[in-house]
Amino acid sequence: MRLYGVLVISHGSRDEGWVQLVEDAVNAVQMPDAMPIYASYLELVEGKLIQDGIYSLEAQGVTDIIVVPLFVSSGSTHIDEISYALGVIAEPVLETDMELLDIRARIHFTSPIDDHPDIAAILYGKIAELSESPQEEILLLVGHGSKEDGFHQKWRQGLTQLAERVRTLGGFAEADIAMLLPDQLASRLAWWAREKPAYKVIVAPLFLSEGYFTHGVIPSRLEGFAYKYHGRALLPSPQISKWIEGQIASVFPYDEQGMT
């Protein structure tokens, strides 16, 4: 008999508030039947790392683990190393310190957030109050990004498609993207200041939780420009829990009664 469980993986943080936001989102997930779920972290959260989650689920008799990578982009290099450590891919694209994890269960690896419509709805909800005349506003979606070949392109694709979804929801005149790595934020703001000086730029951060990047890095790189920004990240939002539920449903083979 196959018993499914869910392992949600996010990056982790030394900030207890950051971790609690993730825990709250995972705890709010509506699970099929009595399927167990475990919030794990790549690093920085002692006792709640990926291997801890695997051991916990397997101790409950789980034979099949649905892995939900709670990362905002397939372009994250962490997705590459986690996939390798879980045995999803034979070799990582980039060198990693991660080693193969001790796993007996079957692994079902789902996808990161990328340009999911639910996430677009969250982003628009976070910035809606900043918009006054969307027909004269430019949405600038900012993500961490990557300089690595292949990973950069995945970041760009996901950000571009997600920005367009948010533009449509808000009726904004334009949608653009910028990555922090490589540093593109100032150049994009300067470009729009030249091309459409009468338009207002609304900056939306694509980060799971608020912290170092949303409160420090992004504002520091916006200095000297005109813009609207309040730095709200995806969490807290009940729609993150709904997104996790959708990832589970993409794998779990249950009928309308929820039976395997």
TrEMBL record:
<keyword id="KW-0479">Metal-binding</keyword>
<keyword id="KW-0456">Lyase</keyword>
<dbReference type="InterPro" id="IPR050963">
    <property type="entry name" value="Sirohydro_Cobaltochel/CbiX"/>
</dbReference>
<protein>
    <submittedName>
        <fullName>Cobalamin biosynthesis protein CbiX</fullName>
    </submittedName>
</protein>
<dbReference type="InterPro" id="IPR002762">
    <property type="entry name" value="CbiX-like"/>
</dbReference>
<dbReference type="Pfam" id="PF01903">
    <property type="entry name" value="CbiX"/>
</dbReference>
